[in-house]
């Protein structure tokens, strides 16, 4: 169906290049700063500053909405999915539009070149009168008109397509709607200025206050406690709440107001459930509703990846992680925050999703990856992990899966330390590595007769070697320890022990085209691999892809079932809808209802069993078997 007039944004095909539109303003400011004693057009500076502050305002509200660990009063319990994030990707188009309209207004009225006073009391009074008497009723009736069949179908339905309210939803609308909204916000400002009572603080305060209220109304977190309205009932007609506006999105025939429910009350469109729902949500503050069925206990990798989370940048967190230049200026501040978290923070809730009526959460231990290799930090890290396990046990969580270094053998024996210390645990502790091993061995083509394995005496390396030798695959196990090699070799069936070969140098694999990296392989060491080699890997971080004549696999991972709901973040460098195999392994443990702890060494006999269980529940391999 062809788009209707003014439904599309003029710059929607420009992508990130749309910000070039700010170029003339920025150029004017730079020219005046370098070549002139004062700014010839001071409004250029103010427009750029206001646009930046408006973007920052929305980002702050985004952060607050996604700080799940605060235990806020959430209105809708669903998570924001990738589809909504993509639809709202250009939520800031309205800031660009209103910046252009402000520029046009300043060019049309030469008096705008004059400096406004910082404060003008008369201007604030005029502004508020124009807002209440003109902007509020104008918005109300325009909003009602846009709920008519034609305008809603072709224009306003875009805004209502967002199933979970979010501050960015406020900006998710058509070009025509934001032209009208620009008029709504512009009338009080221009009216006060044309009456000769404008001021700098009035413009900044009204624009930022307007955005604050819009973000608050579209927030999925209730921020105004019901007790305030109970003590001062008249306030509920003067200021709306996130709960109030959420009812408009669920019952679209009510609650049309801009910020003041008074106008809904005047024209009989106030939802009768508004105050009861608001009291109910705020009275349940801190209870957080449902108990998760499964928890994936992760940790921070490094400073850059710490910014790959929804409460820092929702859009960035919704795509696979990679180092971005625009993040570099934020590196020092992020480091300082992480150091403070190291000193004072507890394990916190980061993300969640739903699968077949079950709630799955990711918690984070506030520790860097490098800290796991510091001997003096081991006890503190284990204490954090232990506290998380005991918290999950008290809450009634069924399975908690330890991610990455949280299950390091040298640290806690793959979770054995905690289970032995607390034998009464009801929550099942799981390292998920059985499925990790399954993903790796299933990825290897059946016609492969020889593999080269580094990290061969690690937990995963041992399981992979023992499994492959049973398939009569020759495994070149790289290790400097003859004792550890022989120990693993003795675990293999007698008739397959000869398939495990002890090697101490990379040169031994110069004719082997299947390498499995369980230990970091430098580009210099990779040179021994013959052309056409494929590198499978389970080492964190992944090895560098330094050979153009070779191919490199990703870390062991699985795609979540198609019926997963509320997923809007990517796990590190994995694509959307894909999680690390140890994450999937813990989820399968919960779905199957297994009552044993999956800790310590991997049970090779269960690799095929766990693999089949994962496939049965809809988990799919990322590779093509």
UniProtKB/TrEMBL annotation:
Gene3D superfamilies: NAD(P)-binding Rossmann-like Domain (3.40.50.720). It is found in: Membrane. Its main location: membrane. One of its GO terms (molecular function) is oxidoreductase activity. GO terms for cellular component: membrane. It is a multi-pass membrane protein. Belongs to the sterol desaturase family. GO terms for biological process: lipid biosynthetic process. The keyword Membrane applies. Keywords: Membrane, Transmembrane, Transmembrane helix. InterPro entries: CER1-like_C, Fatty_acid_hydroxylase, NAD(P)-bd_dom_sf, Sterol_Desaturase_Related. Residues 451-621 form the Very-long-chain aldehyde decarbonylase CER1-like C-terminal domain. The chain crosses the membrane at residues 19-36, 94-112, 124-142, 179-207, 325-344. Pfam families: CER1-like_C, FA_hydroxylase. Residues 129-269 form the Fatty acid hydroxylase domain. This is Fatty acid hydroxylase domain-containing protein.
């Amino acid at each position: 169906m062809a788009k209707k007039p003014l439904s599309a944004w003029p710059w929607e095909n420009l992508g990130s290049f749309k910000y070039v539109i700010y170029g003339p303003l920025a150029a004017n400011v730079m020219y005046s700063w370098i070549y002139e004693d004062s700014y010839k057009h001071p409004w250029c500076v103010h427009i750029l500053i206001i646009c930046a502050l408006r973007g920052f305002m929305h980002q702050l509200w985004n952060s607050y909405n996604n700080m799940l660990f605060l235990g806020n009063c959430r209105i809708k319990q669903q998570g924001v999915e990738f589809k909504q994030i993509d639809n709202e990707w250009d939520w800031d188009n309205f800031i660009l539009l209103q910046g252009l309209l402000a520029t046009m207004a300043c060019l049309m009225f030469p008096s705008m070149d004059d400096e406004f006073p910082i404060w003008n009391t008369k201007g604030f009074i005029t502004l508020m009168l124009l807002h209440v008497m003109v902007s509020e009723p104008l918005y109300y009736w325009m909003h009602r008109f846009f709920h008519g069949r034609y305008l809603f179908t072709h224009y306003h339905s875009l805004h209502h397509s967002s199933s979970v309210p979010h501050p960015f939803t406020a900006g998710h609308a058509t070009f025509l709607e934001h032209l009208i909204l620009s008029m709504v916000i512009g009338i009080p400002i221009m009216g006060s200025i044309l009456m000769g009572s404008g001021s700098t603080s009035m413009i900044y305060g009204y624009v930022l206050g307007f955005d604050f209220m819009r973000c608050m109304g579209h927030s999925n977190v209730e921020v105004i406690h019901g007790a305030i309205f109970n003590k001062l009932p008249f306030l509920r007609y003067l200021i709306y709440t996130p709960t109030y506006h959420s009812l408009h999105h669920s019952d679209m025939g009510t609650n049309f107001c801009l910020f003041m429910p008074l106008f809904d009350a005047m024209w009989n469109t106030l939802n009768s459930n508004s105050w009861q729902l608001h009291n109910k949500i705020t009275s349940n503050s801190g209870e957080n509703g449902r108990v998760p069925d499964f928890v994936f206990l992760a940790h921070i990798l490094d400073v850059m990846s710490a910014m790959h989370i929804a409460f820092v940048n929702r859009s960035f967190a919704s795509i696979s992680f990679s180092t971005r230049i625009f993040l570099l200026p934020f590196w020092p501040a992020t480091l300082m925050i992480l150091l403070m978290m190291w000193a004072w923070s507890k394990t916190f809730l980061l993300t969640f999703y739903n699968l077949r009526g079950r709630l799955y959460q990711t918690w984070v231990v506030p520790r860097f990856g490098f800290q796991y290799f510091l001997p003096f930090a081991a006890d503190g890290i284990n204490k954090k992990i232990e506290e998380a396990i005991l918290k999950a046990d008290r809450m009634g969580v069924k399975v908690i899966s330890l991610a990455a270094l949280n299950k390091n053998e040298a640290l806690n024996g793959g979770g054995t330390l905690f289970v032995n210390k607390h034998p009464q645990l009801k929550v099942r502790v799981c390292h998920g590595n059985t499925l990790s091993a399954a993903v790796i061995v299933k990825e290897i083509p059946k016609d492969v007769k020889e593999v080269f394995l580094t990290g061969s005496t690690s937990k995963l390396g041992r399981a992979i070697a023992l499994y492959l030798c049973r398939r009569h695959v020759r495994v070149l196990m790289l290790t400097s320890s003859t004792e550890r090699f022989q120990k693993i070799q003795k675990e293999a069936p007698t008739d397959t022990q000869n398939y495990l070969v002890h090697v101490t140098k990379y040169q031994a694999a110069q004719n082997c085209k299947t390498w499995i990296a369980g230990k970091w392989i430098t580009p210099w060491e990779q040179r021994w691999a013959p052309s056409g080699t494929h590198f499978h890997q389970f080492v964190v971080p992944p090895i560098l892809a330094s050979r153009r004549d070779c191919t490199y696999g990703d870390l062991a991972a699985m795609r979540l079932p198609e019926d997963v709901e509320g997923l809007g973040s990517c796990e590190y460098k994995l694509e959307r809808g894909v999680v690390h195999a140890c994450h999937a392994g813990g989820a399968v443990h919960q779905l199957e209802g297994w009552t044993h702890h999956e800790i310590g060494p991997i049970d090779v006999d269960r690799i095929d069993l766990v693999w089949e269980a994962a496939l049965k529940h809809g988990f799919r391999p990322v590779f093509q078997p």
